[in-house]
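Read as amino acids, tokens; as here:

___
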Amino acid sequence: MGDIINAVILGIVEGLTEFLPVSSSGHMILTNKLLGYTSDDQMIVTFEIVIQLAAILAIALIYRQRIASLFGLSKATESLGKISSFPNARRKLNLVHIALGIVPALLLAFFLRDVIKGEGFNQTPVLYALVVGGIYMIVAEWLSRSGRIRIVSETIDDISYKQAFMIGLLQCLSLWPGYSRSGSTIAGGMLVGTSYKAAADFSFLMAIPIMAAATGYELLDNYKYIEGDNLPFFIAGFLVSFVVAWLVIVLFLKHIQKVKLTHFAIYRFLLAAFFWYFIMR
């Protein structure tokens, strides 16, 4: 029963933090430490991959109409209901935008895979990343909202190829454990002239292929740890992560104008302080 409770806790943490600009890796390191798990526990490493896949599935289902439209299959999803946030979109976004947004980080992650894995549970770079990423988000939002950067893309369909590529380059910052993929891309979008909403939508949509590729690749090395006695642990974490991630994304998109990046940055600073006090002292 204790393992199931831990699986639920980890699933909640993953679902809550994966797509918000608060660093899921920082939260998972902290939570694993508090629960008594270590970086050399391969079952936990595999479990984190599985609950990430659950979060990916949640966001893929929420954005299913947009994904279908990218492949010219939008009519196929109409019978599934309209929960997409793009009911009247002009459908200008295409697969080239997505490729330009994900290729830089995927290539860099491939060549730095061993370095990234080695730093994945290293607490010091995560602590610094929480703070530096928070400052980056505050600066990006201030420049955008103050008018120093002109917003030229109000919706995701207004994003240009150049903007998609620039966001993709800035997404490489997220390879620093603790920096946050969504934080780097949402703030990055605002720095290159997209609205907060357009940047968030593009960030979430890009997350699907880049996270699926990363977790799928890791799962090939770790699937053997998913076995009979561990199945309830993995199933519980998967289901909880899926449900929580779904709710978080829907609520975030609904209330996006009320929650500023600065609010998330302040939370990151508080998390860093908590992280230092309980983990690194």
Notes: Residues 167 and 188 are 5 Å apart (CA to CA). The longest helix spans residues 196-222.
